[in-house]
Design a protein that fits this description.
alpha+beta; Arc Repressor Mutant, subunit A; Beta-Lactamase; six-stranded antiparallel beta sheet; 46% helix; disordered N terminus
Length: 300
Amino acid sequence: MNADASAPITAQPTVADSAADVSAAGVAAAHRTRSDGGARRTLSSVRNAARLLKAYSSREPEFGVTELADRLGLGKSTVHRLLATLMLEGLIEQDAETGRYRLGLAVHDLGGASASTDLHAAVLMPMSVLRNRTGETVHVGVLDGRGVVYVERLDSPHTLRLFVEVGRRNDAHATGTGKCLLAFLPPDRLDALLREWDLNAKTPHTITDRTALQRDLAEARRRGYAVNRHESEVGVISVAAPIRDATAQVVAAMSVAGPAERMDPALPKVSAAVREAAAIASRRLGWRAHERSSDRAPHS
């Protein structure tokens, strides 16, 4: 790391706020190209169609017209027109026997396209917003046996920053990214890795006792993120949160790392920002929290 007299991390807009700003700018541009009345009518109908589609879930796979009208606060005639239009596009289909409506095959095709988004495409936007929000270096890593391999990196704008090359491998038990990935493994896989694992010390702060590591991983599962305090390099603190795919499996972890003098006082804000960014990356991979089991554990 190089010397720098950088200011502490300050509060920044949330990841969701930044993404919303981009969307809002696009909508504003669309408004300027049309008359106000026409734009409102067009966007209102699209919004109502989107609301109708989002009413469906694994718990409520079918609706009648009256149910949808009540749910959306719309008239039955409006709901009929929306359903008829969506049926023409294959987004909604009607059960011939019951007359009730369910999602069509086109929706499942769209879901498959979303789920197939690769990790690189899914993480770039939230990584960028997270780096800008915290001012620190952001990494994404994947588990490889008892090690972690860094597959993406965005550098801090500060002169004093952490340098970790993409493709570099590090010990999983001594890094925030690695500990996060270990914490969210299924219990049998974690037990197999811990068995006969020589937990070598990278610094005097590295956890080298299996029982102590298990306690640390359990705490990471409970709070939803892992913390590395001087365990891989003295003077460096990192925070990492899990990235899930469409099946709710943890496939990677996103972390923020920086010098302790900047990270330590900002840890609550940084940990919240990391979790939010990792959740956005997860959603871009197809994960939906409300349809899955707890975000915090495959463990009891």
